[in-house]
Specification:
Ni_insertion; four-stranded antiparallel beta sheet; nickel; lyase; 11 helices
């Protein structure tokens, strides 16, 4: 698994994230190609410099518009431009998700429908470059999981197209509220904006969870610098890492067996529910998964007074216990949740992207105790290709099998 750890002690901004990706070695053409597909070629310039902040090196990135920008950009027009562009489906989906979240936040704070939102700061060309570039970069690096530190949002006020606004910026606060995301204290920082709406939206759409980083083996680190001078290093760090317990990671033998399996500590949360509809239970399960649960499943149970109910179970890393309890309270009807520590044994696994005649498909490889490897295609990729090409899932699966055989059947 490609794990990304985002450390943001002085906040989040789109240009800082993009700079960190370039510092990781992201080829600039990965950013330029989708922007050209959007008709932006020759309309902007990336100014990339290696700088130092409080003695620490990193890359600073600024986007320079090469032509006058519109005063505002309606969300409906921008969405149509993004939907019509010949972008890779995964990239198009991610970019639309980020801009859609920004539109919903702006609509909420200004009190009108999302369709009526007119982007100002985030509708300019620099936001398009930041959002498209960051999404393209994370997809290019094959990031499957991203854990984000809790960012400080800033305090004081900021001057925008709407005039002077309080900090945290209203859209930042609304994104955090709507997604149930934490913000760190800005105490001790000079007055000013630390986390921008664009940076918050990118993190909200990409991060699997917010909080401390899990135990992992760091592989590569990219540093993006902010523009403001602070009383400390103004930077964020994006680390590509391998989770402990995955094949090849230091420490993988610890907690393992002589057959190569790895023991993983989990927390189990359970509740018996008899006063929720099937639709409500489905939404609760999806909310638990979205906020970091590794597995969510349910089964029918007989409860008191002969009532039929549902036993819902969620498995998660132990540190996510408090966060997931809040999901039960927010989206469920239960008045209590049981918790139990458990261990599970997992086979060492790794992921790769397989090129097939129909398109790329992510493959998960598991290493068996006898050394053989077993491949499983990501179902979401099979569904996406089948729907886009008008094929059955079985046809796509057969094509994956042929590509695996041609590739020698091994990663």
């Amino acid at each position: 698994m490609t794990l990304a750890l985002l450390d943001c002690p002085t906040g989040l901004a789109g240009n800082m994230l993009l700079a960190a990706l370039l510092d990781l070695g992201l080829p600039p053409e990965v950013i330029a190609a989708p922007l050209a597909a959007l008709g932006l070629e020759g309309r902007y310039r990336l100014r990339i410099e290696e700088r130092r902040s409080a003695g620490l090196r990193g890359l600073h990135l600024a986007v320079e518009a090469l032509e006058p920008q519109p005063h505002h950009r309606p969300w409906g027009a921008l969405r149509g431009q993004l939907q019509a562009a010949p972008l890779e489906p995964a990239l198009q989906q991610r970019v639309l998700e980020v801009f859609g979240l920004l539109a919903e936040a702006e609509a909420a704070v200004h009190g009108h429908a999302a369709e009526a939102v007119e982007f100002h700061e985030v509708g300019a060309i620099d936001a398009l470059v930041d959002i498209v570039g960051v999404c393209a970069g994370l997809l290019h690096l094959g990031v499957e999981q991203l854990v984000c530190g809790v960012p400080p949002a800033g305090h004081g006020r900021v001057v925008t197209a709407h005039g002077a606004l309080p900090l945290p910026a209203p859209a930042v606060l609304e994104i955090a509220r709507s997604r149930g995301l934490p913000l760190a204290s800005s105490e001790g920082f000079p007055a000013g904006e630390l986390t921008t709406p664009t940076g918050m939206a990118l993190a909200a759409c990409w991060a699997d969870r917010f909080g401390p980083s899990p135990a992992a083996l760091p592989l590569r680190v990219g540093v993006g610098l902010g523009s403001r001078e602070l009383d400390r290093a103004n930077l964020l760090r994006l680390t590509l890492a391998r989770p402990l317990g995955e094949a090849g990671a230091e420490g993988a033998i610890e907690g393992g067996s002589e057959w190569g399996e790895v023991r993983e500590a989990l927390l189990q949360q359970q509740a018996q529910i008899d006063d929720a509809t099937a639709e409500d239970l489905a939404y609760l399960a999806e909310a638990l998964r979205r906020d970091g649960a590794l597995e969510v499943f349910s089964q029918p149970v007989a409860m008191k007074k002969g009532r039929t109910g549902t036993l819902m179970t969620a498995l998660m890393p132990p540190e996510l216990g408090p966060r997931l309890r809040r999901v039960w309270w927010r989206h469920g009807t239960t008045l209590g949740v049981r918790e139990q520590r458990q261990d599970r044994w997992i086979l060492p696994r790794q992921s790769e992207t397989l090129a097939t005649r129909l398109g790329p498909v992510r493959i998960k490889w598991a290493t068996l105790p006898d050394g053989r490897r077993r491949a499983k295609a990501e179902h979401a990729d099979l569904v996406e290709l089948a729907g886009r090409l008008g094929r059955s899932i079985e046809e796509v699966r057969d094509e994956v099998r042929r590509a695996l055989a041609a590739d020698g059947g091994a990663p």
